[in-house]
Amino acid sequence: MSAIWGIITGKNQPALLEQAKEQMTSIYEKRCKLDKIEEKEVNNCYFSCGLQYITKEAEHEKLPIMNTNDGIYLTADTMLDNREDLCNWLSVASDTPDGSLVYAAYRKEGIACLKHLQGMFALAIYDARQDCTYIAVDPLAQRCLYYRIDQKHIYFSTLIAPIASVGQVCTYNTYYQKDFLLAPGMMPNLVPGETPYQEIMQVKPGSYLCIKDGKITEHFYWKIEEQSIDHKKCKVKACQEEFIQVFRACTASALRTKANISICLSSGLDSASVAAFAVQQLEKQGKSLFSYTYVPALTPPKKQERSYFIPDETQLVEELVSKYPSITPHFLNNQGKNCLTDLEKIREIMEIPFKACVNLPNLLEIYQQAYANGSRIVLSGQYGNSTISYGHIEPILYELHKKKKWFTYLQYLNGYCTKTVKQSRLQAWKAMRAYFAYADKNAKQKKEIRPQIINPFLTEAILEQYPYKERFSHISTLLFQEDIPDTSESRLKKMEILSSYMYIGAYETKLGLAAGVVVRDPTRDIRMIQFCNSIPFPYFAYKGCVRWLIRGIMKDALPASYQKWPRYGIQNADWHLRILRDWKQVRSMFEDLLQKQEIQTYLDIDKYQALLSKIDQSYASGNYEEITWEKDLQYLCFLLTL
Fold this sequence. Notes:
This protein has 23 helices and 19 strands. The protein has a 6-stranded antiparallel sheet, with helices on one face. Strands 4-5-6-7-11-12 form a 6-stranded antiparallel sheet, covered by helices on one side. A 5-stranded parallel sheet has the order 16-14-13-17-18, with helices on both faces.
């Protein structure tokens, strides 16, 4: 893998190229842990590549490629998963580096070669024969890439800052800021492609840009809604076998390195399943799997915990390690620091606002620790809730209810009440009937596309001079109707939201570059997404077994305790306690928010001051059992990342 950056000028301008070379490269040298930086300049092009030696082939990578004979100039950030197929198709040696494979593929089929590439990639190509520039990313934008067109000069970069450092001064995108504050849940924004700067854009998943004669055309070579294979008649046994086959293949692709491999491991089904598959394959190579689990530094108040919430996942992780001794566990708590201690550092790395301010410092620590033990790949199961462990009972029963498949409905309801949880089938039937009647009524209502102001510290003023109908028009209103359960159609609609993939890809790329590792998530592999989008929808909770792909098919691969349902690991359960402990030092960060003119106009000062007073009282009393402001504090933390 690597980072890429460069500029294509409208005509030969050596002074501009030299400026870009100096300013853009210096930022990568400062912020990224790279093994080598290669730069090339030909005529009106300056291309660069900061290489990380993740795979054995990467050490022999020759990027950028600037071939004046065929007029193809290319730089690429890539880790391909179908190398064997590509080498056979291109008739090249099996040890050909990934970037050279991309170059050979482009020579053979032009930009249409993107359909042949599987894995993670971002690339920039200038074709002098056509005087045309192509900028592209992989189908899920697992590697981010930004660009800017300024007076016919084309800038591209894995990071935003190098582009903002050259050319004209960038203008802050106030709409992006409002999108961030109004997007539901943990999503950063809903308009794909935009960034905090009006002039800088991000390449969308599964797309490439063709820039010629100062004009930009966007093309999608891959769309998630077009990738499903019809498995509606797929038998249960065949589904089980294919799931194991696909999961194993996705995991194997993520293990391609000669270095060590680590994993972000919780007691959740997703990361535990990735670990189980990975360790089985690593044992054949004589390798261990290094796991990193977050544990609390302070004990959360008991009143906040339900019986199925697990604030400290140490014991369950140790049970998994007992089953797979090749896992070498590590338990971290970020040296006991609160999540705001290194906020400025995370903001510099991320370059965009983010709501995961509680989690990202811990992830960075894991990546850094993994690099220190010789790992260059860190595994994750972050996307599993949308693929391998999707399957609460309500959406499945709702789908059966809507399609009037009453026998199957009763069969699944019975299985859920007798095998998954122990409860009265009659009471469950009555509850579901009332719930679905309510959902049917709400689903028929045509609700206005209007973002809800969920953050309690914002006022209606945020909607002024903000064309939210236009900006949110491509988003289904289902996103704003969280009280309605999914159907197979609405689930797919939610998976088609490009901005969510772009955000995940951006933080994994940037944190990985800062730490010197690459993050791989087998649960967010296009093969796994394609499989999960193709199976019959009821299979996600087959016969009432919620999250059946994992809890049913994988039950023998995980400890028996992992089958208990419901069970939720609460990561960072003590995050607010750490802030309260350090409140005397932290409070000034929140006071500084009042000085930010860009949010003063829509900040509810009274509610803001009331929360600070509540925390002041908790800090003064030292009574951690009476905390009622945890959720509000999280909303306030979102504002700190702007």
